[in-house]
Amino acid sequence: MKISKQKEENMKEYKTLRVSPEDEAECIQEMETFGWKLEDSREIYNESEELVGVHGKETVYGGGLLGGFMQGFTGSSGKQQVTVQTRTNVVHFLSMRFSRDQSSKNYPEIARLEQEFYETPEGLMRYVYEPEPPKRRTIVSVILIVVFAIALVATIAESMPENMILASSLLLAAAILFLILSWVFYVVIKRKQGEKNRAIRAHNETIGDAKERRCEEILRRHEVLIKEDNVQ
Length: 232
What we know:
The chain contains 5 helices and 4 strands. It is α+β, with helices and mostly antiparallel strands. Helix 3 (107-118) runs antiparallel to helix 5 (162-231). The longest helix has 70 residues, at 162-231. The radius of gyration is 36 Å and the shape is elongated.
């Protein structure tokens, strides 16, 4: 939602909002809460075509004497057909112009409370990154385990020297250990990050609840101030 705002010499301020049509009623109600009055509303609708891609395909002439003649005559097996794909982009919104009197006694307090109502709460924390499962390392480990297991079986079956059997066994054990450690590290890190995110979520919810209570107080205070201005 884009907002443009200007002040004029007649002690009124004006605000223009771009709102989707389905949010019209909610927008008017919210603006009236803060003392704004709707002066003008215009519907903007525009469609434009965008080129997405061009695809070509060859149409074969067919068999028989005619087809063979046409292929020999043209030097190709058919004619090229081009298909153009387009996409329709739609711009649809309401341009709504509101005004509010600045000469009222309670205007400074109303404007301050409105700004506070829309401010982002301070102290919100970002969630930490949670690792993805080690899929690639698992695939690599499984392949290595299979290869080294086959090599170990082959060395034992062919009665190769003990150092060859030992080397194959160590390689197989290393691949298995690599697979186990990959998942152990993943589980440990995911658990730690999950605990941090749960703490962050609880922290943000606490701030959000406090913000919600404060917004309720602001709305009640706004209602009182606007009623006082209307009485005057």
